[in-house]
Amino acid sequence: MSAEPRKIRLGALLFEEFELLDVFGPLEMFGLLRDRVEIVMLGERPGAVRSNQGPRGWVDVTLAEAPAVDVLLIPGGWGTRRGVEDPVLIQALKDQAESAAWVATVCTGTALLARTGLLDGRRATSNKLAFKWVMSQGPAVNWVPEARWVEDGKFFTSSGVSAGMDMALGLIGKLFDRETSLQVARWAEYTWNDDPTRDPFAKPAGLVD
Amino acid sequence: MSAEPRKIRLGALLFEEFELLDVFGPLEMFGLLRDRVEIVMLGERPGAVRSNQGPRGWVDVTLAEAPAVDVLLIPGGWGTRRGVEDPVLIQALKDQAESAAWVATVCTGTALLARTGLLDGRRATSNKLAFKWVMSQGPAVNWVPEARWVEDGKFFTSSGVSAGMDMALGLIGKLFDRETSLQVARWAEYTWNDDPTRDPFAKPAGLVD
After folding, report:
1. What's the CATH code of the domain at A40?
2. Distances from the Cα of A196 to the Cαs of A125, A132, A136, B113, in angstroms?
3. Closest-approach residue (CA) in chain A for B13
């Protein structure tokens, strides 16, 4: 008898005023593979934490005490405005991001990762409506204004809110294979924008001509 | 000075093994209008409740003790299999649904609403991969196999998981106007399938030729 393969452990960050869909869009996709992916919710302290929209999520374990994760997911939301100024959070994120095999950010979550310095010299994207602020958090990052998501080494960064779902399916293709991504999209009745360069929102936001 | 207009109160149901995106996709869209919409999370008891994917949501108030809501949102997920056999839940849902101005279901959440009898003689849809089971919960409903979502009177029912976001934007158009729906979609960088009859998943699921 062969041992069951170890599940991939995904750690998702929560903080006050996180953006709901930044977190739960990607987790829907990864969570549909629950025989292969284990999700743990990370935060400042265990317990309920309020989203930008009002409804609360739940932190299982503090970021500092969390086990090492294979995939680290960092969402955006208004709370990132405080987060970028929180050196304890940024250091804990840096520690987890350094040991993780993959790091994925959604929306303004890219600003938090940029503040760790780990994106310096790398290509990355973020929310189109907050792009200038996010850029200011990582002057040494090669910012890509027109992209649904950007992959550079182990770092996946996505555009705003809904783009996290497209990126998640892209990362699932990397962790497993493309057929798995397509299967997850079918289960979720989701029309996957599977082309990371196809970004319908850069132009309306005035980021490209 | 004119009084500030009353916010629309949206109550969203949670239960053990709810589907993450069924809930938080629509709530992302409504929650982006937080100056006009107030969200309250309803369930069997206050506190944390585990989703189908693992991460927990948070119930603010029991369904029975909840204030009357303007919009009632009923998600799907594996927990609906137990829910349809729970007469206390079905009666509480029926009471809230009768007094609500609008009732919206996502995915197999339609099965819960069907069990209240309120969909009898009305058109409705649901998840394409669980369609036969959902139909069996409401033999007197006029089931529509090919639809992203269906509107009949005050009832909005949607197809599986991701379809809840398209329906939510449709309902936002009803509550406010189409420009508001388009604005929310832009904020969320979401490509809205705004045609309720365009259903890419009915044919692959074998529900139509």
Report:
1. 3.40.50.880
2. 11, 21, 23, 38
3. A55
